[in-house]
Design goal:
heterotrimer; C: alpha+beta; 5-stranded antiparallel β-sheet
Chain lengths: 269, 283, 380
Amino acid sequence: MRRRTAWRVLTLALFLVFMLVPLLATVLFSVSTRWDRTIWPEGFTVRWWQAVTARSAFQDTLLNSLAVAAATVAVSTLLVTPTAYWAHLRAPKATPWIEFLAIVPFGLPGVVLALGLIRFYSGVPLPLINTPAILVAAYVVLTLPFMYRPLVNALEAVDARTLTEAAQSLGAGGWQTLVRAILPNILPGVINGSLLVFSTVFAEFTLANLLIGARFKTFPIYLVEFTRFDARQASALAVISFVIAWLASVLIIWLVGRGDRPRETLAAR
Amino acid sequence: MSSPRRRLRRAAWLALAPFFVFGLAFEILPVLTLVRSSFTVGDGWSLANFGRAFTPMMVASFRNSLQLSAVTALLGVVGGTVVGYAIITARSRFVRESLTALADVTANFGGAPLAFAFIITLGSTGVITLLLKAAGVSLYPRFRIYSVSGLTIAYVYFQLPLMILLVVPALLGLRQEWREAAVNLGATRAQYWGRVALPILAPSLLGSFLLLFANAFGAYATAWTLTGPDVNLVTVQIAALVRGEVQLDPALADALALVSLGVMAVCVAGYRWLATRPWRAAP
Amino acid sequence: MLLPLSAVRCASHGERVGYVELKGLNKSFAGKPAVRDFRLSMEQGEFVSLLGPSGCGKSTTLRMIAGFEEPDSGEVWLGDQNVLDLPAHRRGMGMVFQSYALFPHLTAWGNVAFGLRIAGRAAGEIRRRVPELLELVGLREVAGQYPRQLSGGQQQRVALARALAIEPRVLLLDEPLSALDAVVRVTLREEIRRIQSALGITTLYVTHDQEEALAISDRVVVMRDGWVEQVGTPEAVYAEPATRFVASFIGKMNQLSAVVESVREGRVRWGEHRLAVPPAATAGLADGQAVLVLVRPEAIGVAPADAEGPTGENRLPATVELVTFLGPVTRLSLEVRGRQVLADVTTGDRGRFQRGMPVQLAFPAAACRVQADEPAGGPR
């Protein structure tokens, strides 16, 4: 086994380098005065950070993204939790249908979903198009698998059926049981799913760009604009994106130490 | 059936209604609209849209997308398996856990920030470019980050950790006794991998390939940020049509969208089927 | 079942094979010794069991021989070859694992053929030998099935056929039957022994089940805490346990703490009773030395106090404390002046005894073994 350690060290080192260099380069770039001629930045400054965060658009887009992400989490949780619970408990025959709806988004590219939604809702007399509402709805669809899986795993892990029967024997009705007996026990699964939804939505560009675009700018849109405009300020925004995504992942990993873990991840492309 | 139970069943289905209505409204109907529209010409049902949609440029976009997806999926599967194996056989628990966590975190990176990070790293004045130039290797002008090759590298960045997350459970499922039995029966390391480990892993690897393929095929933000309209990909074309930049009738856009949905559906269905292959469940 | 012996050969090279010498094997894990100074000499064609409780080092010993663990020190000789120089995949020892370890992606046929394919045997030969081997273990009809479709017993037979396919010089079995249920275990152990005898393969068999070891082995190695406690035929280990551990591990044994009264005449004092033992048994001991008198429960005859007494030089009055029905025998727990003695009677006789009843017990001097009373846990 000794001679194989060299292979392993080399592989892992290359992996580490490949993963970390782009990130570290971005961080360094955002605080360098100039870095296009030399291997190391020519100087350091916080100028770019100050510039990009000073704009009002920065705060607006950040808040927009946070708001949309939070709304998606809220709608998704409210929609999926009772559904998963009721299906698991009382209508197991509905489960294949629910699972189908929760799998379809995996095969739905953002551009296609955008196209379909626009196509459908242009002909529908509902004031949905071009409002954040359609974006939230689209995001809920997109992130459905990420909320559904951890939830169902949690329901199975805590044996929701037995808990329900216990609660009922003590006099709790349907909603009471869900809120008081089940929810506290599947909370790690709910939080897990919520974090995944949040980080996916926060970083999502395609649907935001195509469904609303200029009217309601989210943070990723802001970032892409800057990549064409001023690379250095854009890099500061990129660092913020990475940090938020990293924070969400770390929280999930920390939670995993106490719960289950969804294996499917889709890059925010 | 007693009445209260029937009521309960009906109540349960009622409670499921909001979810189904939502799914219908924002998942199924939009897709069906695309289906209907792409099969409609004038008042009748027709396949003409597909014929018209496949102009040389559109055909090229499919070829590019399929190629890019296949290449990055293949690189992802091979690289991810090698790195994944290196991780799980690492002696130190710290190394194993921190690298798995790294894969977990970076699998979710992607899109615009990632594309941008690669511009900084491998652009014409990027740090690695400069490093290589100092070492005597000149990447430019033959290599440009704003190209399919650059895109490939950027895609591999998120394909690799995704594969690691998928392959680690499968590798852990390779039981120690199978290796010992193979060795005891005379197999060298290569023979063990060739005749036992890889055949057992095959369904999982193939399924992962399909998932990675779909992942790359449907990606948009990375490509848009890195190469914009310069690289002809299916998702880029569809997005352009959504934005109304190119004057084509809607049915054409829908036909394109439907074909890409077909590709995705095959991948996802294939992945699901392979994930439930019998010999995953070893005796 | 006719075994096609002519068609299935065990290793028959020119030199003496299967003669196994294990010398001074030692192995520690993280500072904790698992195997200590293991020595064993095996004749060709011999069936030897390694018997002992969990953690006694028997599996580790086997794995060192197979090449999956590296000994800290010691030698393993096969004929005139030091096997430790060889990597695991070139040792030519067939191994049967506790969890069967059948390859899930191959059918029974494919599993059995695996070793032959690795060795590059001709397709025709493989096509001929695999069915023979499956026939040998009685599984020809399931050749096309996958492991997950087979029962535990069937899987273990396939594993055996697979190990035999490579014509090993030594067969190693690591608790092959412990995952199976009791009835299958008995049938399968007989079959393993029968096949092994027919083929004449030197075999090392690890088990924690003493009945298994006694039933099918030529010799038994009793191990504890990494040490070898005793090596001997099943009869010897049973009737003449060398240490206190072996006495209590193998079957049930009465151990009476006594003091030697007369070495020459073979007399010991057990409390206020005198017991006669064979003079040979006290040879090498001294008058006044503390000893253990070992008597098997089945050697003790029991009768109600007022009935005609059982035979034997040593007779004692006792009271029945407990009557335990064990199936073929019934075990009586008897109290003799505050000390417990176990006696087995045939179940047919059971009706004669009840709790609290006064009885007389007797056992011949010849049934006794005497051992110096060593402190518990002492190694040899």
